[in-house]
Amino acid sequence: MEQHVGSLQEQALKRKERLKALKNRQLQEREQEDGEPERKKALGDEAQEEKHRELKLRNYTPDDEELKERQVPKAKPASVEDKVKEQLEAANPEPIIDEVDLANLAPRKPDWDLKRDVAKKLEKLERRTQRAIAELIRDRLRGSEDELAGAVGAVGITEGDSD
Known about the structure:
The chain is mainly α. It contains six helices and no strands. The radius of gyration is 56 Å and the shape is elongated.
């Protein structure tokens, strides 16, 4: 049993050594690709971040001249009124129908389609009726002119005789 435990420990140690060797190979391959070791890269990135981090003074007014150069100018708020007006106009669509026509809401009579179909024919008949009435009136006026002319002529003759 003691030999068995010893062999397990030896196998664990061999496994650890293989894992270390594998890690070292991977690190070396990365170093060759990038040109810098991983540890140095991590330290270099932090240093670069600190170098690039610049002080921006938005709400603080410094007394020092060097710091006044780093002060950010105050931002002017954008005009919101136009945007609000546009949104309100978009939210209130114009009504499609201004007035409600009661004829459209009321139910139609059962013979509405017959009236619609006959309407064109009635228009033609109405025009013909108007023409006929106009002709009758003209005929009467012509007849009355003849009667008037006869009456005027008769009056003129009677007056001439009395002289």
